[in-house]
Every structure is written in C-alpha cells, then in structure tokens.
Amino acid sequence: MSLPGWAAGVKSFLAKTPLVLHNIPEDKQLDPAWVKSLYQRGNATVYRKSRNELRYIGMPAGGLHAGTVYLGGDGRLWLWGIYNDEREGVDPKTVLWNDGTKEVKVRNRDGACYVEPAIADNKRVLEQGFALRVRQGSKTWIREFRESEWPEISFEATYPVARIHFRDPEFPVSVIMQAGAIFTPLDARNAALPATVFSLECSNNTATPVAVEVLGWLENGASKVSAKNEDGERQNEVINHQHATTVMGTFLTTSDEVKSRRDFGSTSITCVGKADRVHTALEPWPLNDRCFEGHQPAVTKTTAQEKLVGGLVKSIRLAPKGKAAADFVISWHFDHPLAKLKKLEETKTGYYYGTRFPNAAAVGEYIAANFERLHGQSILWRDTYYDSTLPHWFLERTFLNIGTLATANTYRFANGRFWGWEGVNACEGTCTHVWQYAQAMGRIFPELERDARERTDLGIAMQPDGGIIFRAEYESRPAIDGQAGTLLRIYREHQLSTDNAFLQRNWDKIRKAAVFLMAQDKNGDGMTDTPMENTLDAVWEGEIAWIVGLSIAAVRACQKMAEEMGDSDFAARCKTYADKGGRNMADLLFNGEYFIHRPDAIAGRKKLGSYNTCHIDQVYGQAWAWQVGLGRLWDKEKTMSALRSLWKYNFAPDVGPYIQTHTGGRPYALAGEGGMVMNTNPKNEPNPYGDEVTWQLGYFHECMSGFEHQVAAHMMAEGMTDEALVMTRAIHDRHHAAKRNPFNEIECSDHYARAMASYGTFITACGFEYHGPKGYLHFAPRWQAENFRAPFTTAAGWGTYVQQRKGNVQHHAVILKYGELQLQELGVEGAPGRRLQSVTVMVEGRLIPATFEQEDKGIRITLKSRTTISTGQQLKATLNFIA
C-alpha cells in the first residue's frame, strides 16, 4: 500500500507521541458458552428489514473483472461501477473520525467506507427492479420488490448467489429471489460474464389458483455518465432470440469522440424463455396495470438526457400451493480501457468479455441459451459449498472475500492477462506483497493465478538477476516478502495443476528467482538480512522473523519443486538453506515468548522495525507452509508460543482502549469491536520501533483483516481452534450489516485483495492438502472428525468430502459434483491411538486395489493405479481398525 497524503500528518503527530503502556488485556473474558456456540452448524446469516439491516448490503453480483455491481438487501442492484471509473473506491469521499484525541480526516483508502459505509439508496445510478401483478378471482394486487413495499424482507448471505425472501401475510404469493453472478469454480471464462441473474420463485400460499405476472425493468445505461443531448440519442430495442427476449439499451451517435468515452456501450434486460409482453419505454412509477399490459414499439428513441426504461413481463399460472420461477438476466458491456492504467499496453485492446460478445444483448442471449448449465452449476456450487458440518457463518466469512474478483479491483484484458489493484482503484500492479496473502483465487480459479505467475511475475516483472518487480510495470525493484510469497504461490499453482507442464516450462525462471531470494542472506546463516521493501511500505534493516520465515518457506517449496524436476543438486542447496534457516530462526530470533526482529549489527535500531515487539506476521512462513503441505519448518513449541503471544498481547475483544491510546492508525476496527492489532509493545520498551519515527508506524496500531485472517488460518492448523474461530468471528461481526457492508473488507480502499487470505482458514479447518500432478488428496478435519462434511476444489474438479467414524470403522467418501479428479493417494487421519487393520476402496461399486501406511494417526492410502473420478461419481474408502 502507498499512503503519502495520509502519511505526512501521521508522521508529524507520531513524532510527538510519548510512550504509551501496552493495554490489551491478557484475560479476554470471553463467555465460554459463546465460544462453544461458534462451533455450531447454525444457519445462513440472515439480515432483515425488521432489524434495519438492509441499507448497507452490497454483494458483488456481476462477473469477475466486469466492474462493480452490488446486489442490495431488498434485491435491487446498485452502485453500477461498470463505467471504467478512475475514482478510488466504491464511494470516493473523505470523512471525519475522532481517533480518541482529535478529529482526523479519513480518505477512502484510509477507511472512509468503514467509518461511514455507502448506503444503497444513495448510489442507485440506474433504475432497475422487479414487480408482481397477482390476480385471483376478482382481486388484483401489484407489489414491487423494494424495502418499502414488504413488511418483511430477509437476505441470506450465501455468496455467490443470495436468497432474498419477500413475505406479507396479507399477500397471496410469497417470493424467494435468488440473485447473483454466473459463478462456477474452475470455469474462469464463464465466471467473467458481465451479468447478474435473477430467479424469482413465486409460491401460491392459498388454496385457489392465482395468475402471476413478473415484470422486470432496466434503465438504458449507455452513455449514462457523460452524454448531452447534442451528442446523440438513446435507444431501446427488442431483440427476440430463440431462447429469450431482450430489451437492449444503446446510445446512437455519429461522433467518434462520444464512442471513445468510458461509458459508451450497452445494457440489457433479458427474459429467459419468451417474454409475454415487452416495453421499450416503460414508466414504472407509479406501478399500475399499464406496466403489465400490451406491447410497445420494437424500438423507442429519446434524447440523451431523458430516462429510457425497458421492461419485460413473464406470466405464470400457479396451482393451489404451487410454485414456479421466472428467470431474468441483467447484463452490460462497456469495453473501454481505464485511462488510469495507460502504462499497460493491454488496455488499448479492451477487456476479456469484449472479445467474446459484441454487446450486452449477446451476453444475455448466451446465458439464456445455456441457462440450465450456467445458472444450474452456480447454484450447485453454492449448495455444495454451504452443505457442510462447518459453521455456516464461518463458511460465509472465509469465502465471501473472493467477491473482490467481481469488483473493479480486478481486470482481465483482451489478451487474457489477469491484473489487479490492491483495493478498488488504489495501488496498482497486482502487488506481490499483498496478493501473496490471498488464498482464495488460487483454489477457486487456479488458471488466473497461473496466468499471473507466468505472464507477469516470471515474465514482465522478472529481472535478469531473478528479482521479481513487485508491481511489474509500476515499479522498478523487488519486495523481499513479495519475492518469497510469489515462489510459494508458484508451488501452489503447480499443485493446482493436472500435470507437471506448468512447472516444467517455468523451471529455469523459478530457479533463478529462488537463487535471488537466497542471495539476500548476506552472512550465510539461512536468514534473509538484505534491506528491501516489504508490505508495510518500508525498508527494514536486520533479520526480521516474518521475512526470514517466509523466505525459509519459499526455499523449502523450491526444494520440493526441484526434487520433482530431478534437479537434485539444487534441491540439496535449497534443503541446506531451509534447514539452517529454520534452526537459526528458532535459536536466534526467539525472545523466550515470541519471534522478533534482530537489529542489523551496524545500523542497530535506528530505523523503523518491529524489534522486540509482538508482530502479527512473525510466523507467517509457517502459516504458508500449512497451505501447501510443506510440514513443520522450525521448532513447534516456539511457534506455538508465538501464536499464544499474539493472542495474549495483540488480540483485543474491544480495540477501543488500545486505538484511543495508540493513535495514528487507520480506522479498520472501531471501539466496541474485536480484532488483532498489527504490532504491540508488551515489554513497554521506550522507542520500541526504532529511533527514527516514520509515517509507516501508523500501520502498527491498526487491525487489517487480511493479516488477521492469515493468523487465524495458522492457529486453525496448529489446533488453536477456539482462538481461530474467535478471531474470524470478530472480523465477521465487524462486518455485520447493521454496521456496514458485510461483503467489503477494507484495507487500502474497498474490497482489499489481502482479505482473500480468509479462505486459508477454511483450508486449514479441513486439514486440506492437494497435489494434482501426484494425484494426492488429504483431509484432516480440525474438529467433528467423527462426522465431517465439507466442500473441496482440485485442479479439474470439485465436490464434497465426507468422513464418519463408527466404532472400529471409519468411512470416507470423495463425491465429485463437477469436472474430474485424478487420484493416486488419499491421506486421512484415524482416531488417536488406533491401529489400522485393513482398507477397502471402491469407485462406483468397483473395487480399487490399494495399500496403506500409518504413522501415528496419519494414514496414507495408495491406489494401485491412478483412478479417475468423474462428475456424479464417488470414491469410498472404508478403514477397519484393530478393536
């Protein structure tokens, strides 16, 4: 992140700040019953109108890299950040916040939308919505889907497709709206469609038939921002497809200048299946019978600054107690480069979706023609993901941050290149030291991460000496943590491949990048000590535990890749480095409680650093190791002590007292909210962060959710499940809809990429490991091992894993819902102290010969030959233990 404007004020204030005693309580005084409740399965988080919880809800509801379109709590779309807007964040503004000592200005990238969230009704750029006309006998009702029209609306936060319930005991029909993007893991192509799908399931609550008509409408959004009457005219036209009816909105002009503007394009509303009535110039307010009647001309034109709304009506006949659905697609198409990214040649040719579709109507037609498959798979993924024994709230919080990819935070250019900001329109260049925290995209859309590794990190950003520029075209130097994290991601991307091709074609560059990383250890002790940029926007001197440990993890990953490549000499070199570094880190960088920053022998503690303080990332390298199956990197007990220290010294059930006395940080957690502070001074040392106070010190007093998520993931992996769940729940509660948008974890601007570290906590809760080229799959649930069920994704397929223990028998099932899975080895855990006697493996009733090995409770089942599990099939393994 980069914060020069905010920094100047912070620096002058910090220079005058006296020593403030550490004031985070060791005893967290958490109610044991509340902690126990965090493990309960529960139900989907439901936000209700009756509790005033709908106004901030903004679930990213469009395709990946297709701009920011929010689904609101009452089912209407808002924000409409589809016009290649260069402004920073979803709601560019500066607000005032009292930091405990005075009122300070907070910009968007400093947390303005955390302090004062955007409100849906203030950001409805385009008119869009749905309504019902219900006729039963001589009675007629008309009801719009908006908050003011229903006594109760409830929003189920099941990203990527939400369920919204509309209920009125006096109304004969109730409706469940399912709305969201086309979203299927492993299908990045179709997940990038610029569209939102609405399926409105209407239920007849009475004992007599009813006639229902569903009206959907959308304002013509072409040239919405910039057009003047002299520029041209607005047009809505009806397009009849084989599978659907569309009203497309365009802007007619002869001006090349108008056509080059960022908001020149098209919008459309499509009825899946033929619409019964069509409007090209609908006047939806006040809603009346005319809105549901008759056909209008196939084409309507207006002046540029007149509002032009298109509408479609679908008729449904409902039997007593019957139900049926009407399906619609809202789509858009604005294929213009973002001027802010003019350093990137790729922007000149537009965006990925522009290579597939000429306009918004074509998007709607494609989805309608393939509706059963595309929407069906999106629903199948949602239902598979949430069909788990894990707590529903936990599944929501660990997954929903992948919605960042469905905002203006990311782009995919016409040549297929993936590119991202840190937060929406803030800090460019798919920054390595931020994006390396994000675990979600690599698991859900691995092809995008492979593209970023090959095209950017090992291509555009690779220097002759092996250094990887941490912002590619937008920088000129590597960042040490970004370098290490990129090597770890390369290993993950290799694991999320079906074969060795990715590793083989990139090995020479990977090797060079690893050599560069090891060269940053000047004295040969396996601990990085070359001053380089890091994610806290500073160059620190000395041997810093979190950077040392992250480098050790990266080199260990390179050792594993070298072994697979048959590069035995380099594998041995990496092993020597990692072994030595692990020993020295445990011996030299541990202060008896936690891991520290050892000052440079010459520079001392003059410059900014964490030194003998308790830093949130101190054992981050080991956290990364658990994500990719690298095992233990250094002393276990010291690692556990470090995590316990972070809990003891950095986690506050209420951060208010701390941030009021340790000022200068940004407001990403407020008084009354729980969180883990970045860096604390439990020893109450004077000048704990060095003699030279710089603006970056402000970061130390903050709670940034991406860092918190990686610690929670690590705690989960190490068996500190209480602490992991409490931390994750603190973040979840900070983003409750009563306070702010649940779907927007903010750091440096909105939808911050680092927050996708949350998925790592889900991975470690499942004890999940995977290596596609080896055909290896592993599960070790951190709780409820007797009866466990959870989703999983692999290189080419996804599904559900089930584990049950009954007496001396343990059952395991790998059920594939999508794609295929090549399996050679299955790793599981038995009950402690039990010895395995026999294993039986079946695939669709076919016996698969297998052997097994057991070490303590760890069991590795090896199939005689690699076995393919296809969609709809399952592998069952039955383990019999000695009584």
Automatic annotation (TrEMBL):
Matches recorded under InterPro entries: 6-hairpin_glycosidase_sf, 6hp_glycosidase-like_sf, GH116_catalytic, GH116_N, Non-lysos_glucosylceramidase
Residue ranges of every copy of the Glycosyl-hydrolase family 116 catalytic region domain listed in the record: 481-758
Cited Pfam families: DUF608 (PF04685), Glyco_hydr_116N (PF12215)
Domain Glycosyl-hydrolase family 116 N-terminal: 58-373
GO biological process, alphabetically ordered: carbohydrate metabolic process
Domain of life (superkingdom): Bacteria
Gene Ontology MF terms in the entry: beta-glucosidase activity
Protein name: Glycosidase
Source species: Flavihumibacter petaseus NBRC 106054
